[in-house]
Model the fold of this input.
Amino acid sequence: MDREERVERLLEAAFMVIDPLPRQVPAGSEGQYFAVEDFWLREPQIGALRRKFCSLLLKLNCYFDLDVLLLGREGFVRNPTPEELLSWIADPDSSLNILLPSQDSLITLFSGDVCMTVYHPSDAVLKLLQSLAAAEGLFLWQPPDSPGAADDPIP
Done:
């Protein structure tokens, strides 16, 4: 199975998000989620958030190979240099698919999002991401609409 087929298969798996918020904001809740999200999507906030994502991924890359595809560019890159990864992630208009081949896991980061999505995280990846997200001031949780999700999101 090639990498593109693997990505398509993993996109159907259970997923979690790495997010600035500790859980999903319920529809119709009080507060101003959309105004805050819009604020986060503008500079300098989006740059700071994407640097946190890059730092987390670089730390993860110390433990696992990363096969990174910058969407709109041809081919995956195995373990891009830290500078290359930062340049891709720092661009708020970029979208990436990041395979962890040995763990059969996928991380996505899309332009216009304030979170990364982790599909089919192995136990090793999940345990590591919990620590890495916390170190970056981020949260890892499972949305209720994830296949196989429990009734309550995982904190």
Q: What stands out?
A: The radius of gyration is 15 Å. Helices lie at 3-10, 33-40, 45-61, 82-90, 123-135. Strands lie at 15-19, 67-70, 77-78, 96-100, 105-109, 116-119, 139-141. The chain has five helices and seven strands.
